[in-house]
Amino acid sequence: MVDSIEILSETAVVDNTGTPTKATVGYQVKNQYGEDITKTTSLTTNNTNIVAKPALGVVEIDLATIYGGSSKVGDKVAIALVHAESAKSATKTLTLSAAAAVSEVAVTGVYNKDAKELNEGTNLTTDKFYLLVDVKDQYGNAISDKDVAKAGLIKSESNPTIVTTKGTGAVADFETVTIDGKKHLALEIQAPSAGIKAGENQITLISTTTGKNVSYKIQVAETTRTDIVTLSAPALAVAGEDILVPVSVLDKAGKAVTDLKVLNSADKGVKVTFNAGGTAPTFVKAEDGNVYIKVLKSENTTNGVFPLVAQSSTFKVATSTIKVEKAAVATTVRGLKNPLALAAGKAKTLTATDLIIEDQYGREMGAAAVTAYLGTGKGILIEKADAGAMVVTLPVGGVANQTIKTGSGVDVTAGALNGSETLKFVLADAAGTNPVAASTAEGTVRVTDGTEFTSYEIAPIGKVQAKGIEAAGDKAFTVNGLLNGGKVALVQGNTADYTATISGGDGTATVSGGKVTVAEANLDTDDGLPGGNPVDTEFTLKVTINATGEVLEQKFTVSAKNKKVEDFFFTTAATGGTNHDGVTGITEATLKSGSAVASVDLKAGTVPAVVTFATTDQYGNKTVAANTTAATVTIVPEKASEVSIANNGTATATPTLKAGVNEAKLTVKVKVGNATKEVKVTLIP
């Protein structure tokens, strides 16, 4: 049914400027659905010499007959188009014109400067695509003026929900692009408000003066979509721990899908459920480089047999039954992590971190797990294998004093004689009673007076900051005596283990008590004269072993420059202080929704300690600094649909869970100075 008739221009273009015999103007007929039905609709006009030609979409005016053949450019011609059956009509008074106007139009294709494929994953904001258009006037000349093309053409789109083109409604808003040095008229391809989709949109461009038109289908290809999922049993699933489920995913072409963005995509990826509820598992890439489905420990709280269901984007389903074992507990002590050697008369405090402790599955337990174990009223009893041996001694006062507990250790003190002694380590309670015999392991302690050393070493000193610069002090160094299977730190002194001297600079730097003292005034100067600007200066530490006369030397550089951050890492150490040599790093943390990443809400797992930055300067000093030292923070969510991010790429980047989302996974990239590091973050309510 005819719903509207429109005459497309205010002018009718003549065929000849001097004595025109014919003029044309375009028109369009639409039905109640807005569809173009011009070619299938017959119309009548107000004059037999004015003829509507549906096949061309143009009204042709016979100027040689109408008005006696005396028409000229500038004259007015009134026309009326009527559809008798629907009683729809259109009238307009046209001006005869000889000006160049759009007469013919053609589309030469879709253009992208990098020759990329247009697909549903294309970001049309940053990656531009254009529809290239050739336009000619009634004289056969090319039109390059984008405004003339815009005025002389109207457009229609069959499916603008796939992609659309620049310009509102029927307006074709052209621009000029340069390709290989030549300029071309182009329509920018844009994403609809709901986003680009796979499919096709047919663009039709119609001349307003001649009715000539061209149609072109813009094809938007599908990106990778998951199709077939194959699940395998995990090597081990333990209650209270994350589970990594081996998985293989193929796309519709049979190719492996390993892109985490695709796998975790809401519409292209795989939907996974574990035990029919809770926070959905996600796809991760493990340290071995393989892709796994990760079930969070928060959803894996008890042992038993539970279903895991995976559904691909093509609705193909894979299921696996996961057997979850009982939560890990400490069951065995395997021994000392490193050989233990003591100088005669010296002591070593053994703590849980010095021991290898395994759970019931034969896995070495981490420091946090051992700390949690000891916190349940447990301990590690240290005993002598030979109660009468006197190479080393343990604290007196019973087994309670010989038991490693939460936050404490056991002193092992060397006697005066060379020799070795075996210690036994056994799991018990905090009082040292009720030992678990099957958990027992042994370790050897070696005691030496120095006559058994096979060689000696000066541990690397590194670059040193001059004393007094930014409160820097004396620099300690270590000289070790080496044994087969261990090393012992030696003591400086004329009658002790070694003597030491230092040379370089102005010759007045000193060494005493295992420390070098180099002041700014001891450094060389840029002009070689006292009072000049100090420059980095090389010094030599010379160590002579008293017992053997062996001489060791090590060169090191001293500088008067202020500390400068060269690297950093994430840690849970307390804020403040310097030279935290025992500071350990973390790679995973949790963050409260709505908190800036560089805030005190960033925590390592369930450890209630603030995650800060441990910075390292050119002198090797580790300084625990507040998170506000971040220059920029960039957040990359595994699923963009789960998180809203404010100020991304700045020091105040803040992620927030979207409504209905209980947890989200993020990769957070933090820049401090010139260094950038990543931490995996779980965003929680």
Return Rg in Å: 41 Å
**How does the major sheet shape up?**
8 strands, mixed
The helicity comes to: under 10%
Distance between the ends: 57 Å
Strand content: 35-45%
How many structural domains are formed by the residues? 6
Q: From the helix content, strand content and strand pairing, which structural class follows?
A: mainly beta
Number of strands: 52
Instruction: List low-confidence stretches.
Output: 603-610
Q: Topology of this structure?
A:
Blueprint: E1 2-7, E2 11-14, E3 22-31, E4 44-45, E5 50-53, E6 58-62, E7 76-83, E8 88-97, E9 102-111, E10 130-137, H1 146-152, E11 153-157, E12 164-165, E13 175-179, E14 182-190, E15 199-207, E16 213-220, E17 226-231, E18 243-251, H2 260-263, E19 271-274, E20 282-285, E21 291-295, E22 304-311, E23 317-324, E24 330-336, E25 340-343, E26 347-350, E27 355-359, H3 367-374, E28 378-384, E29 392-393, E30 403-404, E31 410-414, E32 419-429, E33 441-448, E34 455-458, E35 464-465, E36 475-476, E37 479-483, E38 486-489, E39 498-503, E40 510-512, E41 515-517, E42 537-545, E43 551-559, E44 565-571, E45 588-592, E46 612-617, E47 622-625, E48 632-637, E49 643-646, E50 654-657, E51 664-672, E52 675-684
Parallel strand pairs: 2-8, 25-33, 35-43, 45-52
Antiparallel strand pairs: 1-3, 2-3, 3-6, 4-7, 5-6, 7-8, 9-10, 10-14, 11-15, 12-14, 13-14, 15-16, 17-18, 18-21, 19-22, 20-21, 22-23, 24-27, 26-31, 28-30, 28-32, 29-31, 32-33, 34-37, 36-41, 37-38, 39-42, 40-41, 42-43, 44-46, 46-47, 48-51, 49-50, 51-52
